[in-house]
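Why does residue order matter? Because the sequence determines the fold. Keep that principle in mind as you read this record.
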Amino acid sequence: MPPPEPSATGSPDPRDLTGPFRHELEIEVRFADTDGMRHVNNAKYLTYCEIARIRYWTDVTGETFGLHTEGVESLILAEARITYRAQAFYGMAVTPKLADGRVPLQLALLSPAGRPVAITADLAGFWRGGWADVRRDMRGRYPKHAWPEDPSVRQ
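Structure:
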């Protein structure tokens, strides 16, 4: 079966909006949102997405966004993506979860060139299994970078 044709937005998904689409919301970054080097904590980005999603709904519909309100339509954030180089996950043995621990976050581990080397929702399983092949390939391509045998343990 051939892949779907791109829509007017250039996306193959026909559900994507067509035409100019832009909504901006300035969000104040608080001190508590940052780490010791004044970088925004990675988990906060998804919180910012939720704030923007709710504000967009309010701005477009003029309705307030109520939690657990039956009969009211709302927007669903179908995908949020934050990418990191594989080294950012060294020392992690547990995959972060969303929705009160019900949904594992899908992690895309990138090479130093920014290309995906693995996508997993089971980080511990990946470290035990597929990591050996990725490590062997990456050590050959990027010998100046650290590629530990057991990245689940902080070095």
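Strands lie at 84-85, 97-98, 103-104, 107-110, 116-120.
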